[in-house]
Every structure is written in structure tokens, then in C-alpha cells.
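Input (structure):
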């Protein structure tokens, strides 16, 4: 049931629900390699850091209830990586299988494209071929870019990490856009 589903920018008011959704994923799932759910305060700090950087952070909401969220954050901290973001998408347990993750990812890809990023990297925990996250990213045009075998240990078993990648805005085929968010942010750091 997709009726009345809205995808919008996340706000601080959504953080209690975002914290709940992520806590369930950490506690019961293998997509996140965290072992203990972060506190609401920690989730707020993470949200604030992404917001300060101008990174897209979205929620899917139906009838006032947040059913999932997605964001793009820095892939790695060193400045040469500034055009590459890593995506994260989580859906509430009661809302899985309804296409919410796909809608969030489509909106996130568009937001990253508009900001001028060149690559989105998915770092998928427990990335086996039947993984819902792997299948979702494949359907959205991400290509497989690597696998780290046995790189995580959670819930009593070894997990592989899969890397997938989607080029945006010409990817590596054209020079950086000086007006893109990553370049403006980079120049701002150089000016200070």
C-alpha cells in the first residue's frame, strides 16, 4: 500500500522514530555492523553532522508516521573523496516489502545528483545474492564493485560486505563542476 506516502527532508522532530527504526535494524538485522543501538543523542549528533555538510537525509511518512529513512553521507573523510557519498536506507519492520526503500532511494539518488555528487557507494552488510538491499541496489542501476569476505561478525556468524556503485552527473568521465555542493564546501574549507 503506497497511498499517501510522502518522501520529504528529515527534521530533528523525526529523530525519535529514526532512532527506533535503526535500533530494530541493529538489534535484529545484519545490514548494520553496529552491535548496540546508538542512543537518541548519538543519532541526533549524526543527523546534525550530515545536515551541517548539506548531505541529503530523507524520510518516508504516511499519515504522520515515519516508515523509513535514507541518507547520503561522506564515503571517506579525505578530501579527494568529496564527490563520493555512501547511501544508507532503513525501513521500519512493519513497512518492509511495500516499496518504501525503493522510493526513498530514488529520491536520495536524485538529491545526490542535484547536489553534484559523482558516485554513490553502497556498503552492504551481509551482502549475499538474496539480500533485499543487494537486489534493491541492482534494480536501481548500481553495479557490483567488490566484496570483503567474512569482514563482519554478528549474530554468531561471519558476514560478507558488498560494495556497489552508481555513477552520477557523468561520473568519472567529466571534470568536477565548480558549482557543485562538494566543490563549494571544499573551497569554503580552504578559505577558512
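Output (sequence):
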Amino acid at each position: 500500500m503506497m497511498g499517501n506516502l510522502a518522501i520529504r527532508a528529515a527534521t530533528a522532530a523525526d529523530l525519535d522514530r529514526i532512532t527506533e527504526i535503526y535500533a530494530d535494524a541493529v538489534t535484529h538485522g545484519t545490514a548494520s555492523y553496529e552491535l548496540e543501538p546508538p542512543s537518541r543523542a548519538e543519532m541526533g549528533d549524526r543527523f546534525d553532522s550530515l545536515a551541517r555538510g548539506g548531505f541529503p537525509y530523507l524520510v518516508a511518512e504516511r499519515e504522520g508516521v515515519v516508515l523509513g529513512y535514507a541518507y547520503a553521507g561522506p564515503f571517506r573523510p579525505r578530501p579527494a573523496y568529496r564527490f563520493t557519498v555512501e547511501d544508507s536506507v532503513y525501513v521500519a519492520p512493519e513497512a518492509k516489502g511495500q516499496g518504501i526503500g525503493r522510493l526513498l532511494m530514488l529520491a536520495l539518488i536524485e538529491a545526490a545528483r542535484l547536489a553534484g555528487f559523482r558516485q554513490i557507494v553502497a556498503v552492504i552488510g551481509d551482502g549475499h545474492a538474496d539480500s533485499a538491499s543487494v537486489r534493491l541496489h541492482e534494480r536501481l542501476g548500481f553495479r557490483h564493485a567488490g566484496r570483503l569476505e567474512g569482514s563482519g561478525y554478528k549474530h554468531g556468524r561471519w558476514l560478507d560486505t558488498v560494495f556497489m556503485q552508481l555513477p552520477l552527473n557523468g561520473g568519472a568521465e567529466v571534470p568536477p563542476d565548480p558549482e557543485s555542493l562538494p566543490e563549494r564546501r571544499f573551497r569554503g574549507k580552504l578559505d577558512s
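Notes: Helices lie at 15-28, 40-52, 100-115, 132-139, 181-191. The CA atoms of residues 17 and 65 lie 8 Å apart.
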